Amino acid sequence: MALTEKSRKWFVTTLLLGTFTMSISQSSLSTAYPTFMKYFNLPASTVAWLTTGFMLIMSVVMPLSPWLMDNFHFKPLYISLLINFVIGTLIIIFAPNFPIMMVGRLMEGFSVGVLFPSYQSIILEITPQSQRGTVMGTVGLVMGSALAVGPIISGVLLQVMNWQAIFGFFLVVLTVVFLLALKTVVSPLKIKSTKFDFVSVFMSLGIIGLLYFINEISHMTATSYVNWGILVVSLILLYLFVRRQLRMSQPLLHLDILSILNFDLGVALTSLSYMSLITVTIVMPLYYQQILGLTPLWSGLALVPAAALLSWLNRRSGRLADRIGFKPVIMVGFGLFIIGWLLLLICSGFKNIWIAVVCSMIIESGNAFAMMPATTLGANSLSNDLIPHGSSIIATFRQVLGSTAIVLATVVLGDRNFNGVFLTFLILEIIAMGLVFMIKDTQKAPIHA
Q1: What does the mean pLDDT of the chain come to?
Q2: How do the domains of the chain map onto residue ranges?
């Protein structure tokens, strides 16, 4: 279906508004943990499953996204995901106990897990390649700002209302999105019926086991045999999953695209960029509170300048990538990462709030020049029919490595070892800069399935 420029903009706006709201749901609950603990009379480790379970279900359904897009028209698929999320949210609001609340939370996670790669695929496919940098810059604005805004919104709502108000906020916005979707969302792609591979889906459950193991590392000992067993079984399942995809004529996920250099680099660089972004949003509030003595409210507000700058830069970096190419823009991004982490390492001894805020702004600026340009670089190395598979692979890797970053930062931090965290991520981004130099400026025609 051909889209006019006006209808394409409304289409993209509706997708991004829905995605922004669902993205907030991913990051907003950490502020409310103490409230949930008191309300349900549960320990923090149990309440944390509201985020952990959400993340696990997200990760396991992401590889299903290409099959769903091949076999269902996008408009009914998108509206179904909105309805599923809304039902899950209603279950949470009226949940009489924590297990029922978890059911609603897993329903939310399912919708987000399918939507994240799907909406990026659609946007990439309906956008001319010469404009993809700009449009994906807007996508980066939505993802980055939602990650930072989520805890702020939940914190403000909890100051004046009960915890149900957080989910009430999601309901109000998604009702507006639903009404907009009925009018503006279309199904621009032809569907092609393909067989659903239950065996591959079962093998992909190894992703859940791997993420569970990663999240339990900080609590494990050498005798945590159950967790080690989960890791072994998960790795075996993932090995079988990869082998099956490479041998099938119509795989659930086209893993053969990992043989394309620029796509591989796009996957690695967007993941390394996301690792720094998510670490900053988690570690810096702790630094402000434990080292600088700020209150939780002010430690959250101290993240606002960096988030605002990230949002402002995203579209501009995308436009710049369209004009001068992706390699120099991505190089700027990882250069800013290196400068930001290095300054934090050098200047942390001054214990100055303004220096810390400026360093955070530099790091998040790096994300604006790195994450979405790297994602678009990878997508541009593929033909349109393979973009859903590429988006799904990128989203899954980003999710797994984002979780790894949180665990890595937590383990290294230990008892306030912030310099150890700053040094660790400085080294990671120096390695990433080495990968940037491997990007091919010119590519052959994209390959097809």
Answers
A1: 86
A2: 1-190, 198-247, 254-449
Distance CA(200)–CA(204), nearest Å, equals: 6
Of the pLDDT bands very low, low, confident and very high (cuts 50, 70, 90), residue 445 is: very low
* Domain 1-190 part of CATH 3.40.190.10: no
Residue located via tokens 């598979």: 389
pLDDT at 296: 67
Mean pLDDT value of segment 64-69: 89
How far apart CA 258 and CA 343 sit, in angstroms, is: 35
SS3 35: helix
- 325-379 per-position pLDDT tens digit: 899 999 999 999 999 999 999 998 888 999 999 999 999 999 999 998 999 999 8
What is each CA distance from 286 to 162, 258, 312, 425, in whole angstroms?
Answer: 25, 37, 25, 16
Q: Is 109 in contact with 57 (CB distance < 8 Å)? A: yes
| pLDDT recorded at residue 446 | 47
Q: What is the pTM of this model?
A: 0.84
| Cα–Cα distance for residue pair 306/279, rounded to 1 Å | 13
Q: Do 1-190 and 254-449 come out as alike in CATH topology?
A: yes
Residues 6 or more apart from 408 whose CB is under 8 A from it? Answer: 424
Rg of the chain in Å (alpha carbons) = 21
- Helices 98-126, 74-93: inter-axial angle, 10-degree rounding: 160
Q: Which residue has the higher pLDDT, 4 or 274?
A: 274
254-449 topology per CATH:
Growth Hormone; Chain: A; (1.20.1250)
- Residues near 93 by beta carbon (within 8 Å), at least 6 away in sequence: 164, 167, 168, 171
* Spatial distance between the Cα atoms of 133 and 126, rounded to a whole number of angstroms: 13
> Who's near 346: CB < 8 A, 6+ residues apart?
none
Contact in structure between 270 and 373 (CB atoms under 8 Å): no
